[in-house]
Design brief:
422 residues
Length: 422
């Protein structure tokens, strides 16, 4: 079912979708999925596509790997930045294979699937709830989060390293097959054809976007690593010839790193037209630990913006309570990232909905609030609450701006696990 020779990203996704929709007797068994985490941000979405593409061509004949976007189809509309990244890759949002494709097929089961995880190392969310991605079904993992010990030590790849963007690790892993495909095309005399140059440009643009976003155009000292710098150097090298040809033949401006970064960033930060519910679910992760459930939303504007430009304090708190009820949360958290007056700022709100959760959140604040996160009361405490009915809400400005959800979530989850042992 896999394409015998390298094709464009668009044709690759068409082939993957056809394989998924084919009758069970006519499709690969097991089906191999490459899936990012449930926040479904640029890093996860783009990494799953690129990794699936090159893993398909690691074998002869090719072994189809299906890139699965870990979100419902409708949620793609919440990500205008994704559209801007897919366009130079020759793709549209509707080309992606989302969770809707699995929900409609009773023949796709945990037993007849295998999973290659990217940008996470434990399958949670709707897929995990359906029993997919158990340790015995995980065939590989590339990730830059803390290792949760779920992925077997024997699988390959098992690449869990610190990097600003998971895509940087994906690029490193895919380099050999990428270069080998280019070498084979060179021997066949195809590397100078417009088709192959266009494919190189599409792949490179897709890979560059999340790396530039996650490292703030390689300027973030806290996030940027050698993996990220090396990946950008490699990818821009793949672009060079294609861009030179494009500029010479069509008068195009070619690739400009800063312009590309600024364009994607401006779209990512535009949330004015979204409801509170859409904002809370756009970049969201959920975990269960110690008998409690926590959900953390990352928002690209600060609380002042949320309370004045989207609605007001009453509407925001009502929406957050409703979202927590919908998600069956004991603890809801909102982490904001913004740049007021050019200063990079993080804020954190946590809301415990019962006495046990409140004890956990208070312990989290006591343990990490001063040194670990340098938390200071936000807005003179106007979002804080202790209603005496077991609920507890605190909102802070976060002094340690180097601590994103990737670091804060494990801190909170560890306290949840500790509470369960008491």
């Amino acid at each position: 079912m896999a394409p015998a020779a390298r094709v464009s990203l668009n044709k690759f996704l068409i082939t993957a979708r056809k394989a998924l929709l084919a009758p069970p007797a006519q499709r690969p068994n097991p089906l191999i999925f490459v899936v990012g985490n449930e926040s479904a941000d640029l890093d996860s979405l783009c990494s799953s596509i690129l990794l699936a593409y090159f893993c398909t061509y690691r074998t002869t004949p090719p072994t189809l790997h299906i890139p699965l976007s870990n979100l419902p189809q409708a949620d793609l509309a919440l990500r205008p930045e994704l559209t801007a990244v897919l366009e130079p890759a020759g793709l549209h949002a509707q080309d992606l294979i989302t969770l809707d494709g699995l929900s409609q097929d009773d023949n796709v089961t945990p037993e007849n699937t295998q999973w290659l995880l990217v940008d996470h190392n434990s399958l949670t969310g709707p897929l995990g709830a359906r029993g997919f991605g158990g340790p015995e079904k995980i065939i590989g993992c590339i990730d830059h989060h803390d290792d949760e010990g779920v992925v077997p030590l024997t699988v390959k790849p098992r690449m869990i390293e610190k990097s600003g963007s998971c895509m940087s690790l994906v690029v490193e892993y895919c380099k050999p097959v990428w270069e080998e495909l280019s070498r084979l095309e060179s021997e066949e005399g195809n590397t100078d054809s417009p088709k192959e140059e266009k494919w190189e440009s599409q792949l490179a643009h897709l890979a560059l976007a999340p790396i530039l976003i996650d490292t703030t155009n390689l300027t973030s000292k806290d996030k940027t690593t050698g993996w990220d710098r090396g990946a950008v150097e490699f990818l821009e090298g793949r672009l060079t010839q294609a861009q030179k040809t494009r500029s010479a033949t069509s008068g195009g401006q070619g690739y400009d790193r800063t312009a590309y970064f600024n364009h994607i960033t401006s779209l990512k930060e535009e949330i004015a037209g979204l409801s509170y519910r859409d904002i809370l679910r756009k970049d969201y992760k959920r975990w269960k630990d110690g008998g409690l459930t926590v959900g953390i939303s990352t928002v690209v504007q600060g609380f002042e913006y949320l309370l004045t430009e989207i609605g007001d304090q009453k509407k925001f708190t009502e929406a957050l309570r409703a979202w927590a009820k919908e998600q069956e949360l004991d603890i809801a958290a909102v982490m904001t990232v913004s740049n007021p007056d050019g200063k990079f700022t993080r804020e954190l709100l946590v809301w415990a909905f019962n006495e046990r959760a409140a004890k956990v959140v208070k312990r989290f604040a006591d343990k990490h609030g001063e040194e670990g996160l340098q938390l200071q009361t936000w807005g003179d405490g106007k979002l804080d609450s202790d209603d005496g009915n077991g609920e507890w809400v605190r909102c802070w400005t976060q002094g340690r701006v180097d601590k994103s959800r990737k670091q804060v979530a494990p801190m909170l989850r560890d306290v949840m696990k500790e509470a369960a042992r008491l």
